[in-house]
Here is the input.
Amino acid sequence: MKTAAILGKTGLAEIASAKQVSLSSAPTRVSFWGVRGSIPTPGPSTVQYGGNTSCVEIRADGQIIILDAGTGLRLLGQELTAEFGDRSLDVTLLLTHTHWDHIQGLPFFLPVYKPQNHLHILGYEGARHGLENVLSSQMESPFFPIGLREVPANVRIEELKEMSFNIGPVRVQACLVNHPGICVGYRLFASDGSVAFFPDNELRPGRKTAPQAPNVAKTNALEFLRSENREMIDFLRDTDVLIMDTQYDREEYKQHVGWGHGCLDDVVMLALEAGVKQLFLFHHDPNHDDAKISQMVSHARQLVASRNGALRIEAAREGARVELRAKARI
Ligand SMILES: [Zn+2]
Ligand SMILES: [Zn+2]
Here is the structure.
């Protein structure tokens, strides 16, 4: 039995105050640095949840693991630099895929410009061009002044073949998802619990193939969702914290079937089926302002209540963090 407590919108200063906590003895911590999908969305209508793209930091069992390198990675890089100073930093970056909104922060990640640092980048095939080529090409002239192979830090890029591996004591399982090109989701098993990260994913089947007739019972649609996503439900069984693509509400989704992004209602049902403890809505649509995202959270909570579920729901927001603590440690 694990507990996950949201610490709220901490702001960067509060995260910095955790400096003194030794990495290995600290509880598992999830920090959100970028939560937006597709393209950054700065501006007054997105200040509550944030406008930077996909980047989540996990501190677990002495490891610093970064999930995706969207534009939120820039802020994390500043924070790590402030925390570690001249001390050597050892970081693992797990990429779900190489779409822009998941890699654009990499050239602006300050730790790669310090020779004492080690960055190990892990991911799967970059759209048939090789992971290293894809990551390097976005930093080639004329796109960027410094090449990835020229940066002072020790950067190692590894294209994964296996779907299960370890980062120190943290076990990681990957799962191919329904999204254009090669894209995966990850589940990390730390001593305090597990965190699953599925930033870009459309559950199967799309509404195109689901029962359409108005007289079709809702239970049939749920049965479809359940049978078509059985593997993913098993993969996510009893996850403590699930971070998942919920880009569209039900109405919007009808116009975006097959685009590779999530429908909120389906994701909530999936999380309930899998016995997930806490769900974070993620990959917020660039056209959704703060009010719309808050509305989606309320809708998702109502869905859970209507099924007497215990699933807790939040929308991921920049600067928020969550701690997981095994019961034995409380
Ligand atoms: Zn994306
Ligand atoms: Zn994508």
Remarks:
- The chain has one domain: 2-329.
